[in-house]
Specification:
The chain is α+β, with helices and mostly antiparallel strands. The chain has 11 helices and 7 strands. A hairpin with a 2-residue loop joins strand 3 and strand 4 (179-186).
């Protein structure tokens, strides 16, 4: 009873609840960040190690306990190494680059329409393509090689870039702030062992980049003529013009909705 009264007396009625709410919010955001990624599996692995550590102490397995004790003493370093991509993705979200800058609602829809038109045309002609759309997180540090361009988003230009005899057709085309900015870019390939062996280099590059940043990657397969979209390292396949347009508008909706209200 005295312990409970002591707890009540020492409880800070304003700061302690605020402290709990902040920690709960941080944990919630971390769960959202790693949901559906390999980080979840690694967290389960660390939980198993922690359980074995406690069990070894209770059971008197001194050698095993000593080994795990030394391992867990460097747990902060272990976490940084294991979750470096997830930590980098979380920190990089601090800086925000809106995809659409100073564009009207009509211009935004025209850009989406041109992207969809280009992808559908290339899919029908079995022309392989990889288009990356930058959103809030900058992707400049993840692009290798590439040729700088500065052009309005045009379905005809996009299709011409990915023609088989074009010198830029092998790389990715980048859309930043509503304009075509780079072509022929090489992207980091995903190292996820669970990716289907049927997916080619374009799909692996799309998954690899979107595992690191919040960009949208659209892939057109030259083998199947199918359109896929990759976001957050997760791939959605067999999209048609309607579903592709709908998904793009949904993913960009926070910006579109705000612009639409201003437009109206």
């Amino acid at each position: 009873m005295s312990g409970f009264l002591n707890f009540i007396q020492n409880f800070r009625w304003l700061l302690d609840p605020l402290d709990v709410v902040i920690v709960a919010f941080i944990i919630y955001r971390i769960i959202l960040l790693i949901k559906g990624t390999r980080a979840v599996q690694m967290l389960f692995g660390l939980a198993v190690i922690l359980l074995v550590y406690v069990s070894s102490q209770v059971a008197g397995l001194y050698t095993l306990h000593w080994i795990l004790d030394n391992f867990l003493s460097s747990i902060i370093l272990v976490i940084v190494v294991l979750f470096q991509n997830d930590i980098r993705r979380a920190l990089i979200h601090v800086g925000a680059n809106p995809f659409f800058t100073d564009l009207s609602y009509r211009e935004e829809n025209e850009i989406i329409s041109e992207l969809v038109k280009a992808c559908v045309n290339m899919a029908n002609r079995r022309i392989g393509a990889l288009v990356v759309i930058e959103r809030e997180t900058g992707i400049k540090d993840f692009l290798e090689v590439g040729t700088e361009i500065d052009s309005k988003v045009s379905s005809d230009l996009i299709a011409s870039i990915f023609l088989p005899y074009s010198p830029l057709h092998d790389g990715a085309l980048v859309v930043q702030q509503g304009r075509l900015t780079r072509a022929g870019c090489f992207l980091p390939l995903s190292q996820n062992p669970d990716i289907s062996k049927a997916l080619g280099t374009r799909h692996r590059a799309a998954i690899g980049l979107t595992e690191l940043v919040d960009a949208i990657a659209i892939v057109v397969s030259e083998e199947t003529g199918k359109i896929s979209m990759v976001v957050g390292g997760r791939i959605t396949r067999d999209l048609d013009s309607t579903s592709l347009s709908r998904v793009l508008k949904t993913l960009l909706e926070p910006r579109n909705a705000r612009k639409k209200s201003d437009h109206v």
